[in-house]
Amino acid sequence: MGACTGLGVCKGLQTFEGNKPCPAVRTLAQVLLDNVSLLTETYVEVNGAPLPRLQWKKDGTLNRHDAGLALDLILFANRESEKQLASEIIEAFLECRPEMQWYSIIYMNFQYDRFGTRSPYTESDLHMTHIHIDWLNYGLYEQTGKTSIPWPSEAYRTGFADILTERLNRTYSSW
Ligand SMILES: [Zn+2]
């Protein structure tokens, strides 16, 4: 599947045009759009507006999303098929961690740190609607006095596209 094979794919890509998420986020989004068809589609937000299932921007404030270091994959945990897909995708991210070198993944009530260590996610904002993945290096953020969010070297990684594609396609037939 190439880019723009359908309306949903183009819509998904539009959220990236004219902006600059980090190379790792751009690469990840493209691999997902090319290999996980559900993520090329839109979903209906509570206000009735159709939104892309891949989202990198938030509200324009200083945060890891608007800094271009994070991606949300909208997959509802209360829908069994989407929850299953989410768990397959997280398994792929974990397996490809040496190549991707992401910093954190959050879904439902659990999270993984950059070493792949799983722990409970206890913030009030449980991630029941999306997988969050990011390349935020909190130490670099602190070094700026929390005035900006620098991109760590890992945010420039793009070489994981092939291995992640292969990993996703290995389970794709069972989706
Ligand atoms: Zn997020």
Notes on the structure:
It is a single chain. With 175 residues, the chain is of the alpha+beta class. It has one domain (7-172). Helix content is 34%, strand content 18%. It has helices at 7-14, 23-35, 80-95, 97-100, 138-143, 161-172; strands at residues 42-44, 50-52, 54-55, 70-74, 104-108, 110-112, 118-120, 127-134. Strands 3-4-8-5-6-7 form a 6-stranded antiparallel β-sheet, with no helix packed on it. α3 runs antiparallel to α6 (161-172). It is globular. It starts with 6 loop residues before the first helix and ends with a helix. Zinc ion binds next to β4.
Features:
175 residues; disordered N terminus; two-stranded antiparallel ribbon; binds zinc ion; 34% helix; 6-stranded antiparallel sheet; alpha+beta; 8 strands; globular
Sketch the major β-sheet. Answer: 6 strands, antiparallel
Helical coverage, percent range? 25-40%
Cα Rg:
15 Å
From the N-terminal CA to the C-terminal CA, the straight-line distance is 17 Å
Q: Widest sheet: strand order?
A: 3-4-8-5-6-7
Cofactors and ligands? zinc ion
**Average predicted confidence as pLDDT:** 87
Structural class: alpha+beta
Q: Helical region count?
A: 6
Q: Return the string of H and E elements.
A: HHEEEEHHEEEEHH
Morphology call: globular
- Poorly predicted regions: 1-17
The count of domains is: 1
Strand content: 15-25%
Overall strand count: 8
Oligomer description: single chain
